[in-house]
Design brief:
The protein has 129 residues and is an alpha+beta fold. The protein has three helices and five strands. Strand 2 and strand 3 form a beta hairpin.
């Protein structure tokens, strides 16, 4: 198997995270994220720390780092250690956040498309029928 460059690994980790493949994910202060990811293609496990991707993949966000481990258990221990260090430093915003990785999603994006989401306008007319 051909060795991947650092840029290729970072690109792959963003891809996996955006596809919802992160086993664990924590939002940190400063719009940064800490993720635990196993690449199903290589079998390698990674701890991935990065900021929000404002360039849609054109540039790697400043401060992006990853650590590569041969097993998910080793990566999990490293993730827990980094999470504990971040917690001690007061940097944890939300553990196992659902914000979608490097993509920034609008908080209300599904509300116009979801028939179960009420906007409050039809509540009075529904009650009078």
């Amino acid at each position: 198997m051909q060795e991947r460059s650092e840029e290729q690994i970072i690109s792959r980790l963003f891809e996996l995270e955006n596809e919802g493949q992160a086993e664990r994910r924590t939002e940190l202060t400063g719009e940064r994220f800490l993720s635990l990811i196993q690449d199903p293609d290589s079998g390698r496990a990674y701890v991935f720390m990065h900021g929000s991707d404002e360039t849609e993949g054109a540039e790697v966000p400043p401060g992006t780092e990853f650590w590569d481990y041969p097993t998910p258990a080793e990566a999990g221990r490293a993730y827990d250690q980094l999470l504990a260090e971040s917690g001690t430093a007061g940097e944890v915003v939300e553990e196992d956040s659902e914000t979608g990785g490097a993509e920034v999603r609008d908080r209300y994006s599904a509300s116009d498309e979801d028939p179960l989401v009420s906007d409050g306008e039809n509540e009075e007319t529904d009650a009078s029928t």
